[in-house]
Amino acid sequence: MRCCEVKSEGWRLRLPGRVRRHPARFIQLMLTFPALGFGLGLRVSHYEAILATQPAVDWFEVLTENYLVPGGRPLDYLTRIRERYPLAMHGVSLSIGSSAPLDREYLR
Q1: CA distance 34 to 38
Q2: Among 19, 34, 37, 50, fewest CB within 10 Å belongs to which?
Q3: How far apart are CA 48 and CA 54, in angstroms?
Q4: With contact defined as beta carbons under 8 Å apart, do 62 and 82 qualify?
Q5: Model confidence over 74-91: pLDDT tens digits?
Q6: Which pTM value belongs to this model?
Q7: Calpha distance 84→61 (Å, rounded)
């Protein structure tokens, strides 16, 4: 077994970069987070099927920018799906993690 792998209960986990130095600490940390269940990305092509069949999904991830307009069909679907499932909002256009400065015009 290489130093970047941890084997537990028949599973082999490849650990990225800085985690390799302290794999046991990483595993312990990951096991302390609460289980959030099984989530899926919400896509336009799935709206009707989700509302009709109510799949066994714990939550949906939505791209925030797709719903930043008042009213409209996408927002109506989002509201209806939100009544049945928790949502995780994922904003991708701010690029907060990039090296570029924050685009204040976009925020307006």
Answers
A1: 12
A2: 34
A3: 10
A4: no
A5: 999 999 999 999 999 987
A6: 0.60
A7: 14
